[in-house]
Amino acid sequence: MTNLDFAGLRETRAANPGRLSSVYAARRQRPLIQGDGRLFIVAADHPARGALAVNGNETAMADRYVLLERLAIALENPKVDGVLGTPDIIDDLALLGLLDDKIVVGSMNRGGIRGASFEMDDRYTGYDIESIVRDRLDFAKNLVRINHEDAGTLETLEATAFAVSDAAAAGIPIMLEPFISKWVNNKIVNDLSTDAVILSVAIAAGLGNSSAQSWLKLPVVPEMERVMASTTLPTLLLGGDPVGDADETFSTWENALNLPGVRGLVVGRSMLYPHDGDVAGAIATAAGMVHPN
Fold first, then answer.
1. CATH code, 131
2. pTM, to two decimals
3. How far is CA 106 from each of CA 21, 35, 212, 214, rounded to the nearest angstrom?
């Protein structure tokens, strides 16, 4: 993607940062739901939480120019409905002219830095609803990790409840990504058992003074039909890193996409940094599962 104007991007950031407001004001928006009613979103909010590793490479996402090139490749695919990121990444994509006719999702809480002693106190250090409205973004997203043994969870839950309430008042859909988590050898581990995911759904869905704009972003786990029976909220599947055989993982995603209430898929590092380096191919495979026609 040598046609990306990185020199112009750097110059604008230094000499004319106010241009961002006019870029966002002029961005062509699209309806959230159109066509087959499904969404395929590419996520790139990992770096702001200190999560740079992909496929065993601890600094895979450290090069911002490589990340932007890979996001540009993904966004070129017409079956990619949008992108999820923190303000720094979304601003870069906006200044590069890559966000027209795409759903733009603002990531809100990145304060739970990966590996930190305070990781469970996942404060809201990115977008808030006011700034999402300011920039005419389309969707909000937050991470809701629930650890019964860590008091930091309480502040995260309270802040998330306020964010859900603010989103409902502003008419902004908000994507809740809940997990039951625990400390294991000084690291946070998410419980991906079916019952744990169902419990996380029950807790997250009840946050805020209205669920009118609430969506869920959930991992694909065994007995996914039981998970989807636990909520009426529209749900996007979390396409995590394939474990074991990639074809088997894709088949699991495809089966889950056919469950009632599932509205699409959110993928991140695994598709932007595939083992074979073929970003366009990986994105096309996942996009074809969400939008087969």
1. 3.20.20.70
2. 0.95
3. 16, 23, 18, 14
